[in-house]
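Q: I'm building a small set of examples for a reading group on sequence design. Run inverse folding on the following structure and report the sequence directly after it, with nothing in between.
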């Protein structure tokens, strides 16, 4: 089924539609698929914004520690000193597969204030340019945030309108704008997420799938099966339903890899089935106190990712 055919389906038309029939669509254009080895397991990346004691180290030192811990790539935020990032990349040999838009929370594209939206759009364009300079295939974008004041349909229309202004630049530079699922009360089902992406009618708009964010209200493998080749990149994050229920919602992230409720064999199987290749980017949300940074990166993150990716 082609993108436009999918968009023509109403709720009645979706009845009886199989997951497999929804996946026969143009593949998202991203270097994570085209430039990386097609073999499994995935390469290991690390979201730089979650680096332990992050204010104590230079960018080069962080890259060096990640290289020594066995990582293949790094995901930086946008807006950093490009020369410093490129120097760290060159000296360590680590790749930069993706870049996080640093302005999407402070200046959401869904804001009612046109000046806020403009700042968010400029931040999006900066991230695309950063990714191009670093050789990254995609960027991570939170498209907007539904609030008591800003309605769901407003976020849908405004975010799409602003993103469309950046699509020509993304297509020109060969960088995929990948929409991430976060707790922003928006795009709450995989069917809607697929439709939102497809409505851009561009192979340079895809999905950034965060595994840990989904388990609070769904099952990751269901999303993977439906989003299929729309998935440009994945964040690998753990979540504990028990901690959520006993200690509070966000405390669910306070658990080490392989000690939460993600069904990793099932998740890895689903990723293989839809043909996902390239990177799995670690976004660890919990670190035990008293563990040295080097030891934590190696034993609690890198080694655990090896086990997960081999499933």
């Amino acid at each position: 089924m082609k993108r436009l055919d999918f968009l023509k389906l109403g709720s009645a038309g979706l009845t009886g539609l199989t997951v497999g029939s929804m996946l026969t669509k143009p593949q998202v254009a991203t270097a994570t698929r085209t430039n990386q080895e097609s073999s499994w397991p995935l390469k290991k990346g690390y979201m730089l914004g979650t680096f332990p004691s992050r204010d104590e180290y230079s960018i080069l030192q962080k890259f060096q520690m990640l290289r020594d811990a066995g990582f293949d790539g790094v995901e930086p935020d946008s807006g950093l000193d490009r020369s410093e990032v490129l120097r760290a990349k060159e000296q360590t040999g680590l790749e930069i597969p993706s870049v996080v838009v640093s302005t999407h929370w402070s200046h959401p594209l869904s804001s009612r204030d046109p000046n806020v939206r403009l700042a968010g759009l400029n931040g999006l364009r900066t991230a695309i340019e950063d990714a191009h300079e670093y050789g990254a295939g995609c960027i991570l974008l939170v498209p907007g945030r539904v609030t008591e004041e800003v309605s769901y349909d407003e976020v849908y229309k405004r975010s799409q309108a602003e993103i469309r202004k950046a699509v020509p630049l993304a297509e020109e530079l060969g960088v995929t704008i990948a929409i991430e699922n976060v707790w922003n009360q928006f795009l709450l089902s995989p069917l809607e997420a697929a439709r939102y992406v497809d409505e851009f009618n561009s192979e340079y708009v895809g999905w950034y799938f965060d595994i840990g964010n989904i388990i609070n209200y769904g099952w990751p493998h269901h999303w993977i099966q439906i989003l299929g080749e729309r998935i440009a990149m994945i964040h690998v994050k753990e979540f504990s339903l028990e901690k959520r229920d006993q200690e509070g919602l966000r405390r669910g992230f306070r658990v080490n890899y392989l000690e939460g409720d993600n069904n990793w064999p099932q998740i890895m199987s689903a990723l293989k089935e839809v043909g996902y290749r390239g990177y799995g980017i670690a976004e660890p949300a919990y670190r035990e106190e008293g563990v040295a940074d080097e030891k934590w990166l190696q034993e609690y993150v890198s080694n655990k990712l090896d086990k997960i990716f081999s499933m």
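Residues 41 and 309 are 5 Å apart (CA to CA).
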